[in-house]
Amino acid sequence: MISKTISCCRLCGSPELDIILDLGAQPPANSLRTDVSQQLEAIPLVICRCRKCTTVQLTETVSPKYLFSDYVWVTGTSQTARDYSQRFYENVSQRCGRTSLFAVEIASNDGTFLQRFRQNGHRVLGVDPAQNLARSAEAAGIPTLAEFFGLEIARRVVQEHGQADAVMARNVLPHVPDPNDVVAGIAHCLKDDGVGAIEFHWIDKILSELHYDSVYHEHFFYHSLHSINELLKRHQLVLFDVTESPISGGSLVAYFSKTPRPTAAALKDKLALEDERGLATLATWHEFARCSLEHRVKLKAMVEAEIRAGKKVVGYGASARSSTLLNFSGIDSRHLSCIADQSPLKHDRYTPGTSVLVVSPERALAERTDTILLLAWNFRDEILGRLADVGFHGNVIVPLPNDPQLLKV
Ligand SMILES: [Zn+2]
């Protein structure tokens, strides 16, 4: 079976779920196709909230094998991610407080983040289910298990490599239907004095900046620091610190350990902020849904106004998020002549549900382009810089955060 509708909360088991936003039936956001006629089945994309534990989640569980078999997003292609990997390394290694580490990363992608640990003389191990990424990580010198991480794989890791000083899970926890199994695995891998780090797209940013494009089938959960803490507590892990991350337009890294450590001031502040803003309330999420429905009308109108003015519009960034944005706002191959993307793995493929051809930025801009729809808006400065480098002049529509903006560059 490709997908299944949940009847109770994935975290606490309560059957009391309130629907928040229906984004329509969409094919998996990363299912770029080489043949435009081969589209994967569209599956309802709906978020709901559990009345008991307040966790916001998708109503549908799509089989991970259906979603991830040929995953084409590669961490290493983003300059923002590469720059951030150094800061992430420093944040984790400082908290470990020792000179020689064994670092394990779950969903290690192409190994970009572990590379920093390796370059600094530490022993590393990656775990990532995508065979193509695991192979490219291995080629770059990062030992990688091509597996879905959970308690079973954690046992194998400990048997073969021993327990770890640092276990990191960057932006993966919301992507697994059974996070309790992953966190049990993390706890199993971690030394008693080790440090765990979980990075997640923070709902404060999702709510306050209207990141409805972060809703896609691979993203089962929309976490707050509170809900992450609840999850950690179930596995006797103690949250002690938090830092901010630029990934996905606004994420947090939660640090935790088996042996309790003093609570950092940054953590106390963030938890208080979540309470103050009412992040977990149903009313806050209903307002989010209302604004998202308004936003898609404004965005489509802005793109159509460009086309009516005789302009040729090209998209920039073929990410999972852009797939949700395009499908939800009804912008497709009738509006965009192509989408530029840095990753060669995505070239000559068509976007899921909206059938826009993805090409290299060089190829996209070789022909006349009047307007760019900046789908990868969370890399806005980086992409505007690249456009300036190649001498692009014209309009740039920045869809998010909040109201769409039209820039003249
Ligand atoms: Zn619940």
Please render the helix and strand layout as text.
Layout: E1 3-5, E2 17-26, E3 43-50, E4 56-58, E5 60-62, H1 64-68, H2 79-96, E6 102-106, H3 112-119, E7 123-127, H4 131-139, E8 144-145, H5 151-161, E9 164-170, H6 179-189, E10 190-201, H7 203-208, E11 221-222, H8 225-233, E12 238-245, E13 251-257, H9 265-277, H10 282-308, E14 313-316, H11 320-329, E15 339-340, E16 349-350, E17 357-359, H12 361-366, E18 371-373, H13 380-389, E19 395-398, E20 405-408
Parallel strand pairs: 6-7, 6-9, 7-8, 9-10, 14-15, 14-18, 15-17, 18-19
Antiparallel strand pairs: 1-5, 2-3, 3-4, 4-11, 10-13, 12-13, 16-17, 19-20
The protein binds zinc ion.
Zinc ion binds next to loops.
Overview of this structure, please?
This protein is of the alpha/beta class and about 400 residues long. Helix content is about 35%, strand content about 25%. The mean pLDDT is about 95. The strands form four sheets. Strands 8-7-6-9-10-13-12 form a seven-stranded mixed beta sheet, with helices on both faces.
| Strand content bin | 15-25%
Class by alpha and beta content: alpha/beta
What is the average per-residue confidence, as pLDDT, rounded to a whole number? 93
Strand order of the largest sheet: 8-7-6-9-10-13-12
Summarize the main sheet: 7 strands, mixed
Cofactors and ligands: zinc ion
